Amino acid sequence: MKIIHILYIVSVAAIAQLAAGCSDSVRYRSVEGGVWNTTYHVTYRSDRDMQDSILWVMRQVERSLSPFDSSSLVSAVNRGDSVRVDSLLSRIFIVSQEVNLMSGGAFDPTVAPLVNLWGYGYRSAGVEPTQQAVDSLMMLVGIRDCGITPDGYIRKKHPATEFNFSAITKGYGCDLVGEMLRRNGCEDYMVEIGGEIALSGMSPRGKEWRVMVDAPVYCDTAVVHERMAVVALTGCGVATSGNYRNYRDTGSGRTWHTISTADGRPAVTDLLSATVVAPSCMLADAYATSCMAQTSDAAFRMLEFVPGVAGMLVTADTMLVTSGFPEIIK
Fold first, then answer.
1. Partner of 292 for a Cys bridge, out of 236, 237, 258, 281, CB 3.0 to 4.6 A?
2. Distance (Å, rounded) from C-alpha 67 to C-alpha 46?
3. What is d(CA 101, CA 273) in angstroms, rounded to the nearest whole number?
4. Residue 307 phi/psi, 5° resolution?
5. What's the CA gap between 123 and 115, in Å, rounded?
6. Helix (H) or strand (E) holding 170
7. Cβ atoms within 10 A of the Cβ of 152, count?
8. Rounded to whole angstroms, how far apart are CA atoms 219 and 88?
9. Cα distance from N-terminal residue to C-terminal residue, the chain
10. Running DSSP on this structure, what letter comes out for residue 194?
11. What average pLDDT is seen over the chain?
């Protein structure tokens, strides 16, 4: 599952703590690997090896929600096949509608054809878009005008409307792995997929999990991890979104992967990155994306308005921290 609509930049400091001084540290297990064209790391406290179950959850997410897999459920919906939603697609669809409403339309998975048009999606046009092409696809956008029928089918705004939930799927995947671990008696865990993190219980140190947030640093040749902040967290999800790593240079200038639902073009705002903490990683993922489609002032107001959600917004000149954001560890 190749998720490239948004590039997440939270790094995990907790992995290196496995050897730290905790009398029960031998009961913590660590699993890591590659999935969805990114990496994953899972640290959990259990007497059982849960690796097979972790991979099974990730496979279920891919089979349901990957627009890059032609055999997935969402791909069938995008083609217009007569298929019923499963529990995964239903849940992520409903949450996406809620975030769309709370963000004033900034978050909208039906922007998928425009993401493809600008070269960041699962189907690239391969040429620089014309205004006519943008305008024609804007008529397809609007998750508020879509719905799920009582018998379990997605009702589209337009037959050509498509969905790309990539800006929320990795966070949702973290939550689903966490839910599986809890069903199997694991209360202490850290699940990280591509930088999105779901946290519960205590780290191997016997304290909250420590998460490092990268500074927004442009680099054309490599991924740069420069520490900007460290926060201690548990019982929540955390995600960071930024435009400084996933961009393209075109004949008319540089474009970024976050597409504005206002005009169908790459969003141009003063934000460099947004780190969001929320009750679930799915919500953190979605609201971090929403921030990057808005100005820092608008994103700040949105985060202050949504219950249980807090954020740290970075511009070229300043760092804005909403109420409720955890204390930054120096």
1. 258
2. 34
3. 22
4. -60, 135
5. 9
6. helix 166-183
7. 12
8. 36
9. 36
10. T
11. 85
pLDDT, position 308: 96
Q: DSSP states of 8-61 as a string?
A: E-EEESGGGGTTSS-TTGGGEEEEEEEETTEEEEEEEE-SS--HHHHHHHHHHH
Closest by CA position to 236, among listed 278, 194, 174, 177: 278
Chain center to CA of 221: 23
Q: Could you tell me how far CA 282 lies from the centroid of its own chain? A: 7
Residues 190, 212: Cα–Cα separation, whole Å = 13
Residues 6+ apart with CB under 8 A from 130: none
Residue 264 has pLDDT above 90, yes or no: no
The DSSP call for residue 266 is: B
- Helix (H) / strand (E) element for 213: namely strand 209-214
Total residue count of the chain as it appears in this document? 330
Q: Residue 96 is encoded by which pair of tokens? A: 């996406």
Q: Is 279 helix (H, G, I), strand (E, B) or coil?
A: coil
Residue of higher predicted confidence among 262 and 221: 262
Contact criterion met (CB below 8 Å) for 134 and 140 = no
Question: Among 269, 212, 277, 261, which Cα is nearest to 243's?
Answer: 269
CA distance 124 to 138: 17
Q: Quick one: tokens of 17? A: 């703590």
Q: What are phi and psi of 185, to 5 degrees?
A: 85, 10
111 DSSP 8-state letter: G
Instruction: Please tell me whether the overall predicted TM-score, pTM, comes out greater than 0.90 for this model.
Output: no
Q: Is 144 helix (H, G, I), strand (E, B) or coil?
A: helix
Residue-wise pLDDT for 181-207, tens only, equals 999 999 999 999 999 999 999 999 999
* Centroid of chain to Cα 116: 18
Q: Which residues pair with 255 in a beta bridge?
A: 248
Question: Which residues on adjacent β-strands are paired with residue 40?
Answer: 33, 193
